[in-house]
Every structure is written in structure tokens, then in C-alpha cells.
Specification:
- It contains 13 helices and 9 strands.
- It has 279 residues and is of the alpha/beta class.
- α4 packs parallel to α6.
- The radius of gyration is 18 Å and the shape is globular.
- Bound molecules: ligand C2E and calcium ion (3 copies).
- One calcium ion binds next to loops.
- It comes from Rubrobacter marinus.
Amino acid sequence: ESGKDRHEVYEADMRARTAKRLGLEGDMRRAVERGCEEFVVRYQPLIDTATGRTSGLEALVRWEHPERGLVSPSDFIPLAEETGMIIAIGRRVLREACSRARDWSSLGPGGRGIEVSVNLSARQFRDPGLLEDVARVLGETGLRPGALTLEVTEGILTEDTPVVLATVQYLGLLGVKLAIDDFGTGYSSLAHVKRFPVDYLKIDRSIVSGIEEDPRDEAIVSAAITLAHALGERVVAEGVETEGQLARLRELGCEVAQGFHFSRPLDGEALAAWLDAGK
Ligand code: C2E
Ligand code: CA
Ligand code: CA
Ligand code: CA
């Protein structure tokens, strides 16, 4: 996830195995059977670099484990993926995020036009029930389809199986947006460009963090922005932690920034207060 790790698959696998050994799998099964209420959502503001205002939110899941406390996604998503429980958990996150975003869009002035992004892992994206879930959640929550962005990593899109192609096309018909997540960490970072138009390109924190000191990182960020703009995509910089990074990103034409410099992921109440304050 840091993007600097060259053993991602191995690591995810290791984590899944460790988690299992710790007995998390049984706990997860029980939590899912009880309706996924232990899986809670935090929201990190996405900031329009031109205005400094919040333009969107990224929904980030956490597991409120009854004994272990808050478990972070990197410690349980691999296991959830491996066991298929990510489908039920993801459905809960999607519903929660769309429902909250719908409520917040009427919170002025910060909430107006607010968009929400939801992460999908490979297994979720390939799930034949995904489209139905998305359509149902939009219908039931009343969230405008264009206010929902689904974030996927490039690897998912570059497997151009008929299922992936059809899913991308149908999501487009629904009016839902797509973002490429963690851009710059894959080994085929141009492959998606050939196949799929997306709305947002999210540049990974591992490159953004070096933008002030490392001319090579700056060159990569600059090239990614140029490429995205040429393709009609907007750019989100992840993991912005300093004013200097923000200033440089603004100069390079990056439209949206996200990171601890603005805010950590917030719970629903804190987020509502954030928007209410006009941020
Ligand atoms: P991601 O999609 O790349 O999400 C961004 C991660 O970076 C989040 O970690 C966020 O808290 C963290 N972050 C944001 N700004 C900064 C910053 O300025 N500095 C640093 N150091 N970190 C920052 P989190 O919430 O632990 O999520 C980790 C990963 O778990 C996510 O990476 C995503 O791949 C996955 N994930 C999170 N929620 C979901 C979900 O609902 N479904 C699925 N399938 N995956 C999820
Ligand atoms: Ca993401
Ligand atoms: Ca990301
Ligand atoms: Ca990342």
C-alpha cells in the first residue's frame, strides 16, 4: 500500500494468514452474520486545490472489534477478500457512504454538491451482484449517481475480461464515476489508459510525499497530471501532508488533494461539523 513495497501480493497473503491464526476469521464471520454493524466508515475530506473547499469525501472502512478495538483495513481486508466476506462488508460500506453523503449534500454551505468515493477491491469489482447493489443503493438513498465515485486499482481494469468491460460500461450508463486508485504503484501504469476512460486519477502517496525533495517524484507527478488532463481526467493527489506539497501540486495543475495536511479520516459526526463550518 505504501507503493514502496515490492512484495504486495506476498504481504497481503502473509497478513491474511496471520489474521487467520489470530482467530480473526471466526470473529469476522460472526460480525458479518450479525449484519456487519461492527464495520464502521470514516470519511476523509477531498479538497479542491483552487478554492480550498471540500469537494468530496473518501469512505474508509474500520472494524470496531468488540475486544481488539479499531482494526485498520490493511489488517482485515486481505482476509475479507480471501474469504469472500468483502462482498457483504463492501455492501454495508457502500450503503452507509451513499446514505450519509445524501444527508450531507443538504448541509450548507460545505455540503452542497458533495461527492463520495468508495473503494472496491478486485473481488468486489468482479462480483456479478455489484451493479445491482450499486443501482439499488442509489435508488434507496436518493444519492445522485454522479455524486458517487468507485475507486479501483489499475490491476483490476487491466484484466480486460468481459465481466470487467461490461461492469465499466454499465457503471458509466448508471452515471457513476470511476477513479484509478494508487496510480504509480502498479507495474503497468499506462495500461488502463488504453482501455478505459475514467473520471479521476489518484496519484499514490508514495510519489506525492517526495514531490518537494525528489525531482524524479516531481517529474512523475507532473507527467501523470499532463497525461490525465490530456485524457480529460481530473487528478487527486493522495497523502498530502505539508503546505509545500500542496503549493507545488497547485502549480502543477492538480485539481484535488487529500491528506493529513487537511484532515485525517473523520467519523460521521465530526465530518458533519466540518461541512457545517463551511470547510
Ligand atoms: P487507499 O484507498 O489508498 O486509502 C488511503 C489511505 O491513506 C487510508 O488508509 C488513509 O487513512 C491514508 N491516508 C490519507 N491521507 C494520508 C496522509 O496524509 N498520510 C498518510 N500516511 N496516510 C494517509 P486506511 O483508511 O488505513 O485504508 C487503507 C487501505 O484499505 C485503503 O487505501 C484501501 O485500499 C483499503 N480500504 C479502505 N476502506 C476500504 C473499503 O471500504 N473497501 C475496500 N475494498 N478497501 C478499503
Ligand atoms: Ca482509495
Ligand atoms: Ca489510494
Ligand atoms: Ca495509497
